[in-house]
Amino acid sequence: MTRFLARNLRDWRLQALAGALVLLAMTFVVSTVTLTRNMIDVLAVVDITGSMNVRDYKRPDGTPASRLETAKAALRDLVSRLPCGSRLALGIFTERRPFLLFTPIEVCRDFSPLDGALDALDWRMAWEGDSRISAGLYRSIEMAAGLGTDLIFISDGHEAPPPPSTGGPDFEGKPGVVRGFIVGAGGYGLSQIPKFDDRGRETGFYGETDVQQENRFGPPPADAESRPGYEPRNAPFGATAAHGTEHLSSVREPYLKKLAAETGLSYAHLDGPGGLLAPLMQAATPRPLPGSLDLRPLLGSIALGLLLAVYVVPPLRALRRRGGSPPTSWKKV
Amino acid sequence: MTLLSRLGATLPQILWLLPLALLPLVVCSQRRTLVSAIAAAPADGLSRTIGWALRLAGIVAIGGLILALSGPYRSGETITRTGIGAQISMLIDRSGSMNETFAGKQPSGAEESKAAASRRLLADFVGSRAHDQFAVTAFSTSPMLVVPMTDRHAAVRAAIAAIDRPGLDYTNVARGLGMALPQFGAGAAQVSRVVLLVSDGAAVIDPKIQGPLRAEIAKIHPNLYWLFLRTKGSPSIYDKPAGEDTPQAAPERHLDLFFKSLGVPYRAFEAEGPEQVAEAIRQIESLERDPIPYTEQRPRRDLTPWAYALAMAGLLVLVAGKLLEADLQGGGRAAAARTAPDDATDERRLAA
Predict the structure, then answer these.
(1) A22 vs B: CB within 8 A
(2) B308, B342, B348: residue with CB nearest A331
(3) Exposure check for chain A: N or C terminus, fewer CB within 10 A?
(4) DSSP strand pairing (B72-74 vs B78-84)
(5) Exposed, middle or buried, A61 (CB in 10 Å: 0-12/13-18/19+)?
(6) Do B150 and B213 belong together in one domain?
(7) Residue B352: what pLDDT?
(8) pLDDT < 70: residue spans in chain A
(9) CA distance A213 to chain B (A)
(10) Chain A within 8 Å of B348 (Cβ-Cβ)?
């Protein structure tokens, strides 16, 4: 009796089955282990100035989509992909300052109001028409520092009115203190900017004379002397009206990259309604938060492997021993 | 039927492995023993039964494991219940003057700005009753939808936490109302609906907008509360101007008159300090004591442990079968068989 029991105990298949049994029993005891996972806290500031209404993106069905719509879709996509426990604060930008809509909201538990708020972003929330992006960016960085978050700043980089020839204001903070990235929204080719009346109805596109083509505050640019009608006192910018393409818009990537370099942020181009997660994970500060890992799938798969081995290995071995030909007769009882 | 339709799996792809559970029908887990003729052994009912039991146990064990790995669950259900609360659409002034104190100065030291006071008191208000639903709209020059109607109070508090940030320019009440009203959606009409306007000033409501606004309010029929944060020295809602009594001369008074003319329950609270704001909020809370249907999400139930338990039951039988495995031949032959590979033969041994 003991002999056949001992023989059975030596059988590797019994050992495998017993191993599987132990693993299964373990699923009831050690189901999860705690470990730290990296969450992200981020402030998203979205430019909602007029140039963000330019329709130079395409929806999957081929109809044109505006930069703002695409940016919204990208943020909603980001929120749905962020690891649970991450939080997002939202601000909008026009004129020269960001306006905080809400402080960070958790992306999983409070997903539906967060998603609804992102969906409600509208250019009609803008309170002034100017778009001084450098000033807005600097103040967004301050705001993110105040909230203790990273920053995503979505803009097309189109300053209105155009910055003076001497360049815009300088960044006075310390570069790199706030981490994050600037997202350049818009196509690389020039497109027309839609125009709206005071009731919010679209009335056409901006023409060349509708917008300021050159900033004539401050000292004149270096080439002013060669302009027609130049006169140092009475016409320091030349005597003719400025011509240009300020009424058309494209993503001003070199400008945004320059701003990013000055402020210690990184830069990414918005290629469509998504794709913000990878650059964010790269640029953001990882914030370790205790999470849990379910061990049961691991234990269960090993147990399944052992169990299947018990059934599959012997016939395979037999097969090999016979030089590949299947067993001639498997009689079942 | 309904029970079945609520079952689901986190990783349904894994269920494609389920045919593997039929493996025990094809191969046996027990040792094979060499016998010259199977017919030499008499047909034995008990052996047959045990053989089938072992096969069944194998099917159950493999199937249960695959099922467990797919993460089975019974999906949660949404139960509608009735509680006490209201749908509250908050319309919050974020004009620059909200960042001043009730005395009309920049806050210094322990002084609290109007925005900071309302932030603190409103944050306490949100979440003091579990079944209130809130929407937050901010307005100054233009209205901004901050958080749509939701019962997630943490999100609402996050929106309220932002209201003492530097504000913008003007107080455009009409457009703000235009955005706060649609937040109620098309839901049940018997729910108590509240528009709570928090502002420190008023503006002339364009006569052109008055008509549509009136129609909208008549349709939604909300209870309207105006929490007027009055700065020291500024006119009260109830002050008649000395000169001409026009909306331009006394916008607060005329906004109050406009609200009164709407034909909906309306109350104005004039607060000249944080204590009065707190008192006003308390009163609003006590006025809004209507039943509200709310949905409770029963969490989904993880069925994985059950699947593991099933697999374990199967495995126990298999292990027992292996443990009690005996060879057809006697003990002496078993020792000899040990030297030969266990599974070299074609004929399967009988389970016994």
Answers:
(1) no
(2) B348
(3) N
(4) unpaired
(5) exposed
(6) yes
(7) 36
(8) 1, 31, 291, 323-333
(9) 27
(10) yes
Rg, C-alpha atoms of chain A: 31
Whether B120 is covered by a domain: the verdict is yes
- The residues that bridge with A105 in the sheet, in sequence order, are A88
Scanning A256-295 for CB atoms below 8 A from B yields none
Q: Are B150 and A321 a contacting pair at CB < 8 A? A: no
Beta bridge partner(s), residue B268: B226
ipTM of the complex: 0.72
Low-confidence residues of chain B, pLDDT below 70? 1-4, 29-41, 76, 186-189, 295-299, 327-352
Its pTM stands at 0.71
Q: Which residue matches tokens 């974020």?
A: B94
CA distances B48 to B37, B45, B211, Å, are 17, 5, 88
pLDDT at A169: 79
Q: Which domain holds residue B67?
A: 2-75+301-339
Q: What is the pLDDT of residue A183?
A: 92
CB contact B98 to A (< 8 Å): no
pLDDT for B46: 82
Res A241: pLDDT: 76
Question: H or E segment at A152?
Answer: strand A150-155
Q: Write the residue in A7, A301, A304 that is nearest to B338 by C-beta.
A: A7
Q: What is the pLDDT of residue B336?
A: 39
Tell me the shortest Cα–Cα distance from B313 to chain A, in angstroms: 9
Q: Domains plus CATH for chain A?
A: 36-211+246-291 (3.40.50.410)
The residue count of chain A comes to 333
- Cβ distance A221 to A165 under 8 Å? yes
Whether residue B347 lies inside any domain: the answer is no
B169–A127 CB contact, under 8 Å: yes
Q: Which of residues 266-305 of B touch A (CB under 8 A)?
A: 304-305
Q: What is the pLDDT of residue B26?
A: 80
Q: Provide the number of structural domains found in chain B.
A: 2
Question: In this structure, are residues A49 and A196 in contact, taking their beta carbons and an 8 Å threshold?
Answer: no
A127 to chain B, closest Cα gap in Å: 6
Helices (H), B236-295: 251-260, 274-287
pLDDT of residue B338: 41
For residue B132, the domain's CATH number is 3.40.50.410
Distance, CA of B46 to CA of B30 (rounded, Å): 16
